[in-house]
């Protein structure tokens, strides 16, 4: 009998993308696809694989008969309900941050550490943060060949990483500034937004339109942010390198969807651009777009809606040995969230 999969948060931003992924798969291994959401969304009709499905309310009995549950909800909801799903006999695959650093919960990227799906003492598998995920396919492939030692990363994170609130705020700022001559001096953008009646409070801590904001996440010790520490800690866990040296600076940019990262990676063994190209081209989940003579490189606007991550600007770092610099773009709502979560479920049933 084909297994039953359930999506918790089926009507949310990531859940909607996951349903789109399922609808566009050539085939799926599931018998039933059950949609679960809050009481507010219960009863809504959604078409999945050509059949109309009714969203059911999140409750313990909603997990009865389910083999795998995909959670696309905030941390506190996952923390409460994923263990309940496990108690009712399901494997929980969680897209939130509730379990990522739990030593009894594997943190999985199927291209990098698929074997970890079978090591789940709590019955839960965690999906990494979207920023970390954007570079994992490329780093995992390079690590297998050359042995990763050190990592310095600057991320350029889309507004959608802050949820619908972030998308709405960026659109409101762009609309408020449209047609205005601003940005000639430091305070013009903030003054123009205030004059347009936009609230001073923003999920980005500073104006994002016509600007970049070197802050993503919440404040942590010694000036670091939660997003920067996620890149460090999750990279170590996924790659299985607890001693990996990592430094990250996370920057919010005025892009709606798709995170980008500038990666400086140091390896145990000598590596060339040609060897890196060979490694990238061998990965089905990576698109190499790297021709400096033709000015070919990935940009977030061109990657939106794509399943693979795109890699370009591959260079051997000047003045450093055994080192590569490259640029990565990945849709943070697809591979960065919904797609990887779904691929973990597919890995479980293979």
For the biggest sheet, the summary is: 6 strands, parallel
- Counting DSSP H or I runs of 4 or more residues, the number of helices is 9
Q: What amount of the residues lies in strands?
A: 15-25%
Uncertain parts = none
Pfam families: Semialdhyde_dh, Semialdhyde_dhC
Catalytic activity: L-aspartate 4-semialdehyde + phosphate + NADP(+) = 4-phospho-L-aspartate + NADPH + H(+)
Subunit structure: Homodimer.
GO biological process, one term: diaminopimelate biosynthetic process
Question: What is the gist of this entry?
Answer:
With 350 residues, this protein is α/β, with parallel strands linked by helices. It contains nine helices and 14 strands. It has two domains: 5-128 and 337-349, 3-Layer(aba) Sandwich (Rossmann fold), CATH 3.40.50; 132-158 and 213-330, Dihydrodipicolinate Reductase, domain 2 (2-Layer Sandwich).
Could you explain the architecture of this structure?
The chain has helices at 13-24, 75-87, 130-146, 163-177, 188-195, 226-239, 273-281, 300-303, 334-349; strands at residues 5-8, 33-37, 45-48, 51-54, 56-57, 68-71, 91-94, 124-126, 148-157, 245-252, 259-267, 286-288, 309-316, 323-330. Helix content is 31%, strand content 22%. The mean pLDDT is 96. A six-stranded parallel beta sheet has the order 5-2-1-6-7-8, with helices on both faces. The chain has two domains: 5-128 and 337-349, 3-Layer(aba) Sandwich (Rossmann fold), CATH 3.40.50; 132-158 and 213-330, Dihydrodipicolinate Reductase, domain 2, CATH 3.30.360. The longest helix is centred in the middle third of the chain and has 17 residues, at 130-146.
């Amino acid at each position: 009998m084909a297994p039953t999969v359930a999506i918790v948060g089926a009507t949310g931003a990531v859940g909607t993308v996951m349903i789109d992924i399922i609808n566009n798969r050539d085939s799926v291994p599931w018998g039933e696809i059950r949609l679960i959401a809050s009481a507010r969304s219960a009863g809504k009709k959604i078409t999945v694989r050509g059949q109309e499905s009714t969203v059911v309310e999140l409750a313990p009995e909603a997990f009865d008969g389910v083999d795998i549950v995909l959670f696309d909800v905030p941390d506190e909801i996952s923390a409460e309900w994923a263990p309940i799903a496990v108690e009712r006999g399901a494997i929980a695959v969680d897209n939130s941050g509730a379990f990522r650093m739990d030593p009894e919960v594997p943190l999985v990227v199927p291209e990098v550490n698929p074997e970890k799906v079978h090591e789940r003492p709590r019955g839960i598998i965690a999906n990494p943060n979207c920023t970390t995920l954007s570079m994992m396919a490329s780093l995992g492939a390079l690590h297998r060949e050359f042995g990763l030692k050190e990592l310095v990363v600057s991320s350029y994170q889309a507004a959608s990483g802050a949820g619908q609130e972030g998308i709405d705020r960026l659109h409101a700022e762009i609309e408020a500034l449209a047609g205005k001559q601003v940005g000639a001096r430091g305070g013009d953008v903030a003054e123009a937004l205030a004059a347009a009646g936009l609230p001073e409070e923003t999920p980005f801590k500073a104006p994002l339109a016509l600007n970049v904001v070197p802050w993503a996440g919440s404040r942590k010790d010694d000036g670091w942010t939660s997003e920067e520490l996620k890149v460090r800690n999750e990279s170590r866990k996924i790659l299985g390198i607890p001693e990996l040296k990592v430094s990250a600076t996370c920057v919010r940019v005025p892009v709606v969807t798709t995170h980008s990262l500038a990666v400086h990676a140091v390896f145990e063994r000598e590596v060339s651009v040609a060897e890196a190209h060979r490694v990238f081209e061998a990965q089905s989940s990576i698109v190499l777009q790297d021709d400096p003579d033709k000015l070919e490189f990935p940009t977030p606007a061109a990657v939106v809606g794509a399943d693979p991550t795109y890699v370009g600007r591959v260079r051997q770092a000047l003045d450093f040995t055994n080192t590569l610099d490259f640029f990565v773009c990945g849709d943070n709502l697809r591979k960065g969230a919904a797609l990887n979560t779904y691929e973990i479920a597919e890995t479980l049933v293979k």
